[in-house]
Amino acid sequence: MRRLAAIVLILSAAVGPLPAAADAIGDAVRGETLFRQHCSACHQIGPGATNRVGPRLTGIFGRRAGSLEDFSYSKAMTRMGRDGLTWTLETLTAYVENPRALVSGTRMNYRGMADPEARSALLAYLREYSDKPQNIPEAEPTAVRTDHDLDPAILALKGDPDYGEYLSSECTTCHQADGSDQGIPSITGWPTEDFVVAMHAYKRQLRPHPVMQMMAGRLSNDEIAALAAFFAALDPAR
After folding, report:
1. Which parts of the chain fold into alpha helices (H)?
2. Could you give the dihedral angle defined by the CA atoms of residues 130, 75, 178 and 192, in that order, rounded to the nearest 10 degrees?
3. What's this model's pTM, rounded to 2 decimal places?
4. Nearest to 101 by CA among 149, 40, 160, 68
């Protein structure tokens, strides 16, 4: 116990006051209601849960994306799992908020849950059926971070598509300008907001692909906006 207390004190000194367990993860009772409203048509969770349209969510925290052997995932989800995407509080929060911003091409037909309190409650309910360290809510896979919300000012930037074309040569060495998917997902015709959110997810190392993390890490906010404007306007038929 003394060793645990020392660890908590060290963490507190490094990142500031830690949230109480109840505040860190949300209201699981409300989350159960939200699960029934938003998720249960496609997913099951708990003892005896089976795969439906979507995979069972029992034990979701700490699980590698696309890793259930008895479920057929989309190519996009399988690819993200190979890249290292693991379901933690942070990545699940991002996915529930906007599935396509985290996993481009996901088959999950859900527009996302905008309310952060609702997301927190839903994840609290999912956590009831995963490992959940009661006294250290900051430990994976239920780590709480506050740096993953994208500044609205970044989304409001208007990119210069001509500058984006100039910058795009490194992108098109892998991503096909004609929009074809040859083992690497297409980014041609992407909505600008989806592109910006995805690139900043790589920049923050929320999306796991190491090459994309490196590429995004070298780009400024204006450069990402310019690339988004270029690829959004690019005609896949050209």
Report:
1. 2-15, 21-25, 28-38, 75-83, 89-97, 99-102, 116-127, 152-155, 161-167, 192-203, 210-217, 221-233
2. -20
3. 0.58
4. 149
Could you tell me if 224 and 183 lie in one domain?
Answer: yes
Q: Is residue 213 part of a domain?
A: yes
Residues 57 and 99 in one domain: yes
Amino acid of residue 24: A
pLDDT tens sequence for the chain (238 residues): 344 334 333 333 333 333 333 335 789 999 999 999 999 999 999 999 999 999 999 999 889 999 999 999 999 999 999 999 999 888 999 999 999 989 989 999 899 999 999 999 999 999 888 865 443 344 455 555 434 467 889 989 999 999 999 999 999 888 887 877 766 778 888 889 888 988 998 898 888 788 899 999 999 999 999 999 999 998 765 5
User: What residues does 64 pair with on adjacent strands?
Assistant: 86
- Name the domain count of the chain: 2
What letter does residue 86 receive in the DSSP assignment?
Answer: B
46 and 123 part of one domain: yes
161 token code pair: 């598509």
Domain span at residue 113 reads 20-127
